[in-house]
Amino acid sequence: MSPSEADSALPAGGGAFLLTQLGTHAAQAFAERIAELDLTPPQAGLLRAVAFGPGRSQQALAQQLGTAPTRLVALVDGLEQRGLLERRRNPGDRRLHAVHLSVAGEAVMADIGRVSRDHDDAVLSALDPAEREQLRALLARVATDRGLTPGVHPGYRTLSAADPGSPSREDRATY
Amino acid sequence: MSPSEADSALPAGGGAFLLTQLGTHAAQAFAERIAELDLTPPQAGLLRAVAFGPGRSQQALAQQLGTAPTRLVALVDGLEQRGLLERRRNPGDRRLHAVHLSVAGEAVMADIGRVSRDHDDAVLSALDPAEREQLRALLARVATDRGLTPGVHPGYRTLSAADPGSPSREDRATY
DNA sequence: TATTGTTATACTCTATAACTATA
DNA sequence: TATAGTTATAGAGTATAACAATA
């Protein structure tokens, strides 16, 4: 392959590669920003899920996010110890833990909103408002077509769930 | 936050979030595809880098990919054992290992090209050719603006290099 | 002494499986 | 017996630091 790459081979010139390239970049940039709130991206995602649908069980949350229940326990633990989430036992079925945002948690959600807005603005600073909306519309159509759950990051979902014959854990490498 | 999310808060509705969401999805889909070639995404990225500029030292490759030289050693090891890469000692400076594609490696590169084309087509199947080009142009502008190296995935680059005061390794979490 | 490459070690994150309690 | 949640263990992937060879 010669250095004049942009031929029909597109090992790295196509839209899909640009998507993964920019997506990883955006994820890293977002991680840097919410680190200022002492949060990791998975924690922010969980807070968002709880804010969107409060009072659900950990099983329900795990299923929506597409992650193993055991992983959710640790996430909830950390955020509960910091006073951002609360577990409330369901009197009817005492096995269930309804997960709620605390008052402090709601305040942090507001911070996350601000950070997300700033982040969005910085990442797309090359585009004017009309172009941003154009991009957003195109991406939304692709996301729908590919069956992505709105607001839920695929990083929670384990691959082997979708592909029974998956060879190993190597699939999920950073790429 | 009420379930009527699409207000100005955009914790997950903006273009940047769609970008990370789709980018992660595309990366996972690509990982599944090249797994059929018994390759991981980092391996494919290295092969691509070598194909694009053959005969460079491991230091040069590490710098271009933005990864630690120690990580490159393991990657080259694996691909050399499979007969896809060759290390050739530089007679002038016997410290340097010039990395080249073997004949089998070039054949695999052709396979990677095919897989990438299929992958690109599948990910963007919701868009017609004109829309794909429109999307590609918008993404390319954003990528340039954000300083991304064409053809190089940011997953190689460690975060702390760009951000000296980074808090810990949690930044790089999947999100 | 500086640089290329290598090896050894430790750490983070996540997944898998075994366990407890409620039903 | 089945389900929600928890704990314990192991594995993959990467980074950091010490080391050997060549300049």
Looking at CATH, which topology of chain A would you report?
Arc Repressor Mutant, subunit A
**What is the N-to-C order of secondary-structure elements of chain A (H for helix, E for strand)?**
HHHHEEHHH
- Classify the beta-strand content of chain A into a percent band: 5-15%
Task: Name the chain pair whose interface involves the most residues.
Answer: A-B, 82 and 81 residues
**What is the CA-based Rg of chain A, rounded?**
19 Å
What count of structural domains of chain A?
Answer: 1
Oligomer: homodimer
Topology, element by element:
The structure is a homodimer of 175-residue chains.
Chain A: H1 15-35, H2 41-52, H3 58-65, H4 69-81, E1 85-89, E2 97-101, H5 103-123, H6 129-145, H7 159-162
Helix pairs in contact in A: 1-5, 2-5, 3-4
Chain B binds a DNA duplex (23 and 23 nucleotides) through α4.
Short description:
2 copies of one chain form a homodimer. Chain A is built from 7 helices and 2 strands.
Written overview of the protein:
The structure is a homodimer of 175-residue chains. Chain A has 175 residues and is mainly α. Chain A has a single domain, classed as Arc Repressor Mutant, subunit A (Orthogonal Bundle). Helices cover 55% and strands 6% of the residues of chain A. Chain A has 7 helices and 2 strands. In chain A, strands 1-2 form a two-stranded antiparallel ribbon. In chain A, strand 1 (85-89) and strand 2 (97-101) form a beta hairpin. In chain A, helix 2 (41-52) packs across helix 5 and helix 3 (58-65) packs across helix 4. Chains A and B meet through helix 1, helix 2, helix 5 and helix 6 of A and helix 1, helix 2, helix 5 and helix 6 of B. Chain B binds a DNA duplex (23 and 23 nucleotides) through residues 42, 57-59, 67-74, 77, 93-97, 158, 160, 168-170, 172-174.
